[in-house]
Amino acid sequence: MKTNSLQTFTAAIIILLMGLSAQSQPWKDHGKLVVESMNPHYLQYQDGTSFFWFADTGWEMLHRLNRDEITKYLENRKLKGFNVIQTVIISEFIHMDKVTNFYGDSIFVNENPEKPLITPGSNPDNGREYDFWDHVDYAVQTAEKNGLYLALVPSWGEWVTPRSDKALFNTVEQAYNYGCFLGNRYKTYPNIIWMLGGDRHPNERNIGIDLWRAMAEGITDGTTGERNLNGKADYPATLITHHSYNSSSNWFHNDGWIDFHTWGSYHAEIDNPRSIELALADWNLKNPKPTLNSEPCYEGGGINYAIDDNGYFTSTDVRIAAYWSVFSGGAGITYGCQPIWQFTDQSRKKHSPKTIMDWKEGLDLPGAVQLGYLKKLITSRDMKNLRPDRSMLISGMGSCSSYAPVLKGKSHAFIYIPTGNSIKVKLGEISGTKIKASWFNPRTGTFTFIGEFVNSGDKDFKVPGMSADLTWLRSGRGCDWVLVLDDASVQFSVQ
Question: Is the alpha carbon torsion for 107, 111, 113, 115 positive or negative?
Fold first, then answer.
């Protein structure tokens, strides 16, 4: 009887949380997302409220999930603290499977990107009415109800800059007209972010850069009601980025349409230095924009794509990539999970053969929860003046797998210690006559108070043991901690 009561209470709390999250729509409270004017490395809402990007790679959601599964997936991600879902409209795999979505619908008439296949009506119980675009609409609307942004990828890069198959887009007119259709169809939704690209570099084809620019112009013109392919548009009306292996800053940094840059550290190795290097490179650009690691290693994914049985990325690998990227200047982070991006299960074949579980099992892998703790940490303190700055580290800076990045604001600093090495810190680098020091555990999201100190001189810090039973275990992979230093006179939401 006691157990049943507890189960009933727990279920009620979950339902309540789902209801609250469904009602939480930040664009209603804070306005649309824009780039910060004072610190253009970050995103914020129009009212000045900071925004920390925490996305999931739900790439194949629009193709593989039915309506009920989309609802359950988005509710799960909302409850875990995600605020963005990255998903693709024209999938990389549509020609491989000969199946476009769960309901067997086609995207275009005769694969013509200027002729979306739209049928009268939208009744999901009537297969003749409910088409591919109705299904996209449903995902957009369900995300909106849950307060989630969709980072919609209009077309995977393969169909603009192909490596193995024919291109779908071959003229700037095609790209522009498709963009116009998208912009017009989704112009009234406040939760749309446009993410052009998709793995392939835009210059892998001689007209690739021109095609992406035309598509961005089309999306914006479709949003504003224009119809003129002239290289100009009212770009503040949209929020657009470009996703590929290297940062979009390499090709589009000075383009008016691109609001922030994305790139990926990807899946070749553990402790991938790209997580640090690309973030810092974009941070140091003239006239900078926000930058994001939008495809780090996938939890449960094969290291180097499982070639030669290298093992699988774990939550430790996910944490290291995330903290390195964010503490090196990233405006947030994207989480990836190998079974989830492809939504594989017994009825849906694996796009990556060595995937080790079904997508519903993957929903609760620890990395997703642990990166939610990173979001909790960053948003617990003022984001306005954050910057990567390791100048306060005297020793313990680390290299390779032990590299310790520092993210510093005016009144606080975060130092990530990935392998438990001891550090010496130069105090006096943040405001306050005294500082409070705490350890933040990135595995549990908990704080442990260290003490209060005069904010001057040098001080050594040694990480705690991993647990009450493992007090001796302080170093090695998985023994990662964040040293949090706060101006003692400032009250923060989490201590």
Answer: negative
Question: For the chain, what is the domain count?
Answer: 2
Distance (Å, whole) CA 49 – CA 244? 28
Classify residue 196: in a domain, yes or no: yes
Give the separation between CA 306 and CA 251, rounded to whole angstroms: 31
Mean pLDDT value across residues 147-170: 94
Q: Please compute the mean of the pLDDT values over residues 372-392 and round it to a whole number.
A: 96
Q: What is the pLDDT of residue 16?
A: 43
Helical ranges in 202-265 per DSSP H:
208-224, 249-252
The verdict on 61 and 151 lying in the same domain is yes
Helix 274-283, helix 315-327: angle, nearest 10: 20
pLDDT bin (cut points 50, 70, 90) of residue 348 is: confident
| pLDDT over 50 at 3, yes or no | no
Pairing of β 84-90 and β 53-57 = parallel
Beta bridge partners of 481: 417
Element (H, E) at 71: helix 67-79
User: What pTM did the predictor assign?
Assistant: 0.93
Rounded Cα–Cα distance for residues 420 and 478 (Å): 9
Closest by alpha carbon to 455, among 413, 397, 405, 420? 413
Q: In what helix (H) or strand (E) does residue 460 lie, and over which residues does it extend? A: strand 458-461
d(CA 195, CA 438): 37
**348 and 448, same structural domain?**
no
First to last CA, the chain: 38
Q: What is the CA radius of gyration of the chain?
A: 23
Does residue 10 have a pLDDT over 80? Answer: no
Assess whether 65 and 113 both reside in one domain. Answer: yes
Per-residue model confidence as pLDDT tens digits over 412-459: 999 999 999 899 999 999 999 999 999 999 999 999 999 999 999 999
pLDDT digits (tens, 9 = 90+) for 86-106: 999 999 987 644 558 999 999
> For residues 19 and 372, what is the distance between their CA atoms, to the nearest angstrom?
20
CATH of the domain at 270: 3.20.20.80
The secondary structure of 272-331 as a DSSP string is: -THHHHHHHHHHTSSS---EEE-S-PPBTPBGGGGTTS--B--HHHHHHHHHHHHHTT-S
